[in-house]
Records
---
Amino acid sequence: MNITDDRFSASGELIAMSGGEGGARYACVTCHGARGEGNGFDAPRLAGLPAGYLQKQMEDYAVGLRAHEVMRDAARFLDSHERVRVANFYASLPPQAFPFETQPATEEAIAAATPALYASACEQCHGVEGVGSVNGPPLNAQPAFYLTQQLQDWQVSKRRNDGNHVMLKVAQQLKPDEVRQLSLYLARVSVAHPLAQIP
Ligand code: HEC
Ligand code: HEC
């Protein structure tokens, strides 16, 4: 692509507002929030996630390695340049979570053992308290429902976009209770956590 092409093509922000070729039905802000904070339920926060991770997800949805009807279509209406631009746009936003008070199911006590399970099974890739690392995306302050959904999708290979099936193997070790507890635990970690600022 040359500079002239770029001047006439939609910016990442415009795609987020308009949905690109697909039109308003695929406007990212409808489900992922005006500031990329997600909807606190099934649509994750995108604000502040690594650009490379976001762009890879768009490619994976488009080809079905990650199966989801709406996201498949949202991704397919964008060309590869647009996927890069919208990924860069969301990566550049300050990490922003759906307001904590409305995260679901927090009344359920989180088992005392959960942080220890996280530290032994997940932290090496997803970082201290889920802030992310070069080996895995941030998980902190994602909706509990969303996190549970992803782990269950891996257990049945509905999501199979992880290199070397690393998440398939991890997910299949987890009992249903552990999936729920880990999801509740991670949903409660604030994006304002000091470690969240480390790139
Ligand atoms: C109608 C609602 C809706 C619209 C519109 C929508 N999304 Fe999504 N998005 C979702 C849902 C629901 C998920 C979770 C799907 C799953 O479980 O895999 C998701 C997941 C994602 C993910 C995966 C994030 C992660 O942490 O792995 C990315 C990236 C994403 N969407 C980007 C976009 C972009 C960019 C647009 C606009 C072009 C968009 N979405 C439009 C509902 C929507
Ligand atoms: C060896 C590294 C590794 C370990 C250990 C690991 N993960 Fe992951 N995880 C990844 C990678 C890599 C991805 C991104 C895969 C992709 O490209 O979609 C991921 C993605 C995820 C996602 C999806 C995030 C999103 O935004 O959609 C969840 C949820 C998750 N992991 C939970 C866990 C939990 C819970 C544990 C511990 C029980 C764990 N992971 C252990 C590497 C790991």
---
Amino acid sequence: MKREKGLTILLILGAVLALTKCQPDQKIVEDQSNTTPYNLVVPNGFPQPMIPADNLTTVEGVKLGRFLFYEKKLSGDQTQSCGSCHMQEVSFGDIKAKSIGIAGLETDRHAMVLFNLAWQEFFFWDGRTKTLEEQALEPVTNPIEMNADWPTVLARLEATPMYPPLFEAAFGDKNITKERVGKAIAQFERTIVSANSEYDRVKRETASGGLPSTNPFSDPLVEEGYQLFRSEDGDCFHCHGEVETSYLLGAFGKDATFRNNGLKADWVDEKGRFEVTGAPEDIGKMKVPTLRNTVISFGDGSSVALSAPFMHDGSIPTLDSLIEFYNFGGHKTATSNTDPNMKAAGIGRNWSPREKAALKAFLGSLTDFTFLEDTNFSDPFLN
Ligand code: HEC
Ligand code: HEC
């Protein structure tokens, strides 16, 4: 009896060992014991960020990651960094509908804005990547984007005197590996937090009793836009969620993450989330983008787009065309698979000029100017 039990345990142990040994993406645990924890401040109303236990956010790792984010040595011909397509002044997005990679080729999709990434579970428009650590490795070898190979990139970093000590400070020794590059960039990206817009101020002050809970915005146009945004008439809130996402106004959480807003009548080449899941109901679904830092309002009733062009294909070039797209209601055809929350699809909404201006003004209240200018996120090679 006893022997048998021992044997069973041995067999199970053996199986477990064999399994762990074969796992291709086995986690490499780094020595972060001599690092300084980075004080990632969680904005009021936000949930706890998702920080992987095997890659804590540290002052040393963030410093290294910031250099790597702006490091052109990560691209084949050393002309492009992550920051080339993700520019801080436009919410870490790109002004081109499709970014131009190093060989002059266009990316398949529009570059995404980057902030509040520590609260997200899926990356890319189709959500094909689940961690920032993994995501950061993809552009480097992507032939359209940075078109480099890892041995070359790692050799270049090793030959640059500033890097070995930076890797040692962040990960315990001077070894430069691609996993460490991914981890450091992910640490830096988690610090890019934006929660200091007019909207955030109003939410904070309302929560602490400083403002009335109804009509809290000082500008009536913004207030009107807010009411429209969260009413069935404007109907943005079902997808660009507010309450359930703790003021994030983008998709966070598994259920609401991917939606089809009827952008296209047909999904022929591009199939969005379907490309990951293969499920027919996922055709045309894209990661619902955040609405923060998309628009600038001037307070005189006029507003312009900040992070345009919009959508996964950059097909909506201006703020006016964005509002007209939603006013039109989106496409609803047999193949479009449009979300039921696009209730006006194929019918249109008939907003008045005042309603359109109000929606724009509300979007403008979501823009955080301190984030756009925060020198903690800017190119460290320049300042
Ligand atoms: C040539 C332009 C280009 C370069 C260079 C580039 N990106 Fe991107 N980035 C994109 C595009 C385009 C997408 C969307 C791709 C898709 O969905 O298929 C994207 C998406 C992302 C996302 C997903 C954001 C989200 O909300 O899901 C992250 C994170 C990101 N990039 C980080 C980086 C990092 C880190 C680097 C450098 C290692 C980098 N990018 C280099 C164009 C670029
Ligand atoms: C059915 C869900 C849904 C509804 C309702 C909805 N959206 Fe969207 N929104 C999306 C999705 C999904 C995308 C990305 C689509 C794509 O790229 O193909 C998007 C994209 C956007 C973008 C572009 C952001 C970027 O970074 O490119 C803006 C701005 C926007 N929506 C504003 C609004 C406003 C304003 C309303 C209300 C009038 C609204 N949305 C209603 C799902 C929705």
